[in-house]
Amino acid sequence: MFNTIKHFFTGPNVEPEALKAYFYRLPDKISINWFRDGDFIIGKIKAGDAEFMTQAKSADEFVEMINDTLFTVYEIPREYSDLLLRYKRFEPNPNQFNELEDASIKKSSISFAKQKLEPNPA
What we know:
Layout: H1 2-6, H2 16-25, E1 29-37, E2 40-47, E3 50-56, H3 59-73, H4 78-87, H5 94-101, E4 107-113
């Protein structure tokens, strides 16, 4: 994966070793218990021993907020988070996303596992 990402470096401030380190800084698993409160989807994110919350008005925005929250909490600089988001993001499966979009579903949960790194081609 990192060989592929190298082709998209946008400036001299992005180092391959740092990119790899930031990838491994992200949690291996997260779980989110979410509920609706009026127009908002509110989620409690659990990543290891850490817990934090986020909210959004739409399913798409909620997924973006989950990823933004994780990159913020784990102190991933913007130039690295933008690059990592192209290849690695925490995203619900289609059924979980449909639940987020369905206003009649008042609460549910989502679990994610971090993607494995692709082996470097020889």
